[in-house]
Amino acid sequence: MSAALAIRGLTKRFGAVQALTGVDLDLAADELLVLLGPTGAGKTTLLRCIAGLEAPDAGSITLGGVDAVGLSPAQRDVALVFQNFSLYPDWTVGENIAFPLRAPGRAMGADAIRERVAWAARMLRLTDYLDRPASRLSGGQMQRVAIGRAIVRRPRLFLMDEPLTNLDAKLRESLRVELAVLRRELKTPMLYVTHDQAEALSMGDRVAVLDGGRILQQGEPRAVYERPVSPAVARLVGLPRINLLPAEDAGGGWTAGGVAIVPRAAGDPAGRCLLGIRPEDLRLAGGSAPAEVQLVEHLGAALLVTLRWAGMQVQALVGKDAAVRRGDTVHPAADPGRTHRWSAAD
User: Fold this and answer.
1) CA separation for the pair 121, 118 (Å, rounded)
2) Of 292, 298, 331, 340, nearest to 317 (Cα)?
């Protein structure tokens, strides 16, 4: 697929703060790319540079094969949706959706605007609310209107800056499915920013992990989850969070806190390493060293068990019917084939 967006070496500084450092990123013409990172990672700054609201200090931004760095925001023809709804509360839903179509230079007639607004309202199930003031909408309806205001323009690119953050958990789950389906129907590329791992892994055709202004890894969601290139990526991708154990080579096997964890494997680092064990890859039986169960949390379909093992606190994710209670002694065992090894320097 051809690239709708190509970023090379993008750098941006605000005074003493280095917001972006040498960012390289591509977005295909029919793709939803999720940019995942914690607060302060540089996600919003990157979107604002793409939209033309910030000028980068160095690097290039190419939209549809055209150098966009010198273009105004209007010339770039991208739609940016923020986490705050930013609607005109006294305007109706229809008036809010139509607002971008009435901008100077568009020269759309009244009939064409009504048709475009009706089309957007149908796609977002807002037809029955077109005459209702925005102030009388629920949070989910307001965010639909904000999205409608973006899609009604039929831009070349959607930029979504954590658009579901201010909604409750159930509504976020519903709307992220709707957004992914809507993007496929529109066949418009989308760069979606979030700090929510569930959104990133469930929505994206690809995921790019951003932290400290740098892209740490990008790829298909499953690949990034199963093969994180560093502990930093592993911490950011996956819930419950990965267990990280400092370990040393003890004659062919890795030990942590005097406990044998897994054998060495081809390609393992020498001397010392950091072992990464996902909670779902840690069994409660089969190991040689005991662990004390400190806490059992019921998550519905599973139990999250906090253990004191190998001199540190770790977590295991087990089936909801597991017979385990606080105070029990278990013998954890890690799956060697699913345990990550990184150099201690990482």
Assistant:
1) 5
2) 298
pLDDT value at position 108? 84
Q: Hunting for tokens 């409608």 — which residue is that?
A: 148
Query: Is-contact 97 115, C-beta < 8 A?
Result: no
Q: Which amino acid is at 118?
A: A
Q: Is the peptide bond before 133 cis (omega within 30 degrees of 0)?
A: no
The domain of 206 spans 3-236
pLDDT given for residue 241 in this prediction: 94
Low-confidence ranges of the chain (pLDDT < 70): 1-2
Total number of domains constituting the chain: 2
In this prediction, residue 175 carries a pLDDT of: 85
Distance in angstroms (rounded) separating the CA atoms of residues 323 and 300: 15
- In angstroms, rounded to a whole number, what is the distance separating the alpha carbons of residues 304 and 300? 10
How far is it, in rounded angstroms, from Cα 203 to Cα 278? Answer: 22
Q: Are residues 217 and 271 in the same domain?
A: no
Q: Within a 10 A sphere around the Cβ of 74, how many other Cβ atoms? A: 12
| CATH code, 276 | 2.40.50.140
103, containing H or E segment: none
